[in-house]
Write a structure and sequence with these properties.
The structure is a single chain. The protein has 172 residues and is an alpha/beta fold. It has a single domain, classed as 3-Layer(aba) Sandwich (Rossmann fold), CATH 3.40.50. It has a 6-stranded mixed beta sheet, sandwiched between helices. It starts with a helix and ends with a strand. This is Histidine phosphatase family protein. InterPro entries: His_Pase_superF_clade-1 (IPR013078), His_PPase_superfam (IPR029033). It comes from Phyllobacterium brassicacearum.
Amino acid sequence: MGVTAIRLLFGLAAGILVLPHSVNAQEVIYIVRHSDPPSTLNLDEILDETPLSQSGQQRATMLAERLKDAGISAIYATQARRTVETAEHLAKARGLEIRVHSYEDSDGLVRLLHSENGKDRVLVVGHWSTIPEILKALGYPEEIKIERSAYDNLFVVVPRGDQAPIVLHLHY
């Protein structure tokens, strides 16, 4: 296990995230699934304009609290209302604008991350179906499956140039 991975794991165990300062690559990308939509809807009834439930708003607040000191300088969310609402609390706390991207273009999002946020710490809010695509586009070789009913996924991605990124799969 490399020094970067050891520092990352040690920092997580201590309750903080200690990341190395990278000279040529993105420092870290946090990728989360949007928070909970209303439980009264079937999964097939959830549309782009579906808001977060009250518990989803609470989870979004908790996410903002967990990431407020992570040094995030850019936030991306898809056009779905619940992804934007998941990111709003952190965006407000950090004084950032949420950049909306299409959930149909994960490769384009990754190109944008590299071209416009090359040395930043970034939050990306996606969906059960887009997060595996984003991780693959970032060079992560493992297959990731997210249950459609799980809203607590948090991936910490540490790019490593030409090597596969270090990816930690956490829950919040």
